[in-house]
Every structure is written in C-alpha cells, then in structure tokens.
Amino acid sequence: MPELPEVETVRKGLISLVKGKTIAKVDVYWPRIIEFPEIEIFQQQLIGETIETVDRRGKYLIFHFTHYEMVSHLRMEGKYEYFDQPRPLDKHSHVRFIFTDGTELIYHDVRKFGRMALLKKGMAKEYKGLLQLGPEPIDEDFDLLNFKQQLKKSSTMIKPLLLNQKIVAGLGNIYVDEVLWLAKIHPEQPADTLSAQTVRRLRVAIIEVIAKAKEAGGTTIRTYLNALGEAGHFQQELHVYGQTGIPCSRCGTPIIKIKVAQRGTHLCPHCQKLKKV
C-alpha cells in the first residue's frame, strides 16, 4: 500500500497541482530517501528545474523536469502533500520541494521506506527497478501468450508470483486477493498447474480489477490519502480483502483469511478451491 491504482491517482493529483511549477529550493531531512546522486548534488541540480509532467510505471512515479527525471517509489506509506503556503513540518516530513511561487510539495513517509533517484533526461527507463517490471495490466500491454508462457515456467504459488512485479506490474496484496477471487483461483495454486482457460480468465480479472480501482481512485485502508488529500473509494467494492467472516458475494460462504508466503490472504474457500496436481 499504496498499489498501482493509488499511485495512478497520486500521479493525476500531482499533475493538477505542480505541473509547470519551478523549484526554488529542496530540503532533505532523511538522507536515505535519496538513492542517488549525493544529497547536495540532488538539491543543487533541482534548483531552477520546472516540472513538465509526472508519469507512472507500475508503482513508480516518474517526475519529468527540464533537464532531469526523478524516479520515486512510495513503498509502504509514502505520500506527497501539497501546500499553498509554508507550514510547520512534522517528524514524518522527509523531503520538501519549495517552488518559486511560494507553494510547497512535501514527501511524507511514516516508515521511511520510500526512495527517490534523480537521473539525466531520458534515463529513467534505465533505472534498475523499472527494468525489472513486467507489462502494465492493460489490454494493449499485457500479452496473453507471454503471460501463459511465464506461468508455465514457474511452480511458485500464484499469489507470490503475481506480487513480484516481474510477470505483471503494479499488483499488491489487496488487488491480488481481489483478482484471484474474481478468477476463482486459490492463492496457493502452483502457477504451472493453471489451465489455458484459467490463465485467460486470470488475465481478464487483472485488467478488470485494476481498471475499476483506478476509476475509483484506489482503495483507502487506514489513513491513505492521495496528493489532493482525497480518499479513494474502491474499498466499497472489495469482495474478499478485509472481509473475513463476511459471506462471499458470489456463493454466500464466509470469507476466510490465511497466510500465503507470509502475507495475510483473503479468499472464499468454496469459490477458490486448491486443485490437486
């Protein structure tokens, strides 16, 4: 958390708030947030840079400046907060971008896991984390034949395989649970045991769930807000995640929660049976 739909919503919020703004100063309060270059160089190179746009790849944000690109990964609880005038910082405010018009963009991260990397223009695509990503979960990028081949090569349980970002980008714990429920697949089912028909159904479920979640502005669990300070509302459409004990909306069987690869996992024991190989 945040996952792809939440990051997409942050991207849209940032475009509406900071696109076209020019940086006057950058303050860094937690150095580990900056992967590279060195802090002083990071701060210096961004002075005078204008934000041309903000893209997204998987769960990564890519800020396009006049001469540089910044890759930003929010990890567990990172978020950007925009203010139209200076405000006192709290202990979770780690990077502050001050614009020439006096407005500010502050990177806030309770767990300090988020990272930023500044690269020369056109080089973000060479960033290691981006190079390892699978296709975006949209129809035109997410090829069925390649997906089938990838799953056939792996005996890993389907849930952790979908979480690793190399098969398809952007899926996290919430949406994998929802996707597997929709596709009627047990999260512990080995990937190479899925039939061609089931893989086809899984691909459709991934595209559908992510598209709906993006449209809803993401899912608000605990205190997640996007860059506009708004909460997503896809949580109102969750079928299994966080629904332990509630009747399955498809068959009425109570949803259960188990551990799969150390991750809390929600499923319907009737709709999502583990099939023997």
Question: Quick gist of this model?
Answer:
The protein is α+β, with helices and mostly antiparallel strands and 277 residues long.
Q: What does the main sheet amount to? A: 5 strands, mixed
Helix content: 25-40%
Average predicted confidence as pLDDT: 91
Domain count: 2
CATH topology of the largest domain: N-terminal domain of MutM-like DNA repair proteins
Strand content of the residues, in percent?
15-25%
| Highest-level CATH class of the largest domain | Alpha Beta
Termini Cα gap: 33 Å
Radius of gyration: 20 Å
Low-confidence stretches: 220-229
Please identify which CATH superfamily of the largest domain we are dealing with: MutM-like, N-terminal
Structural class: alpha+beta
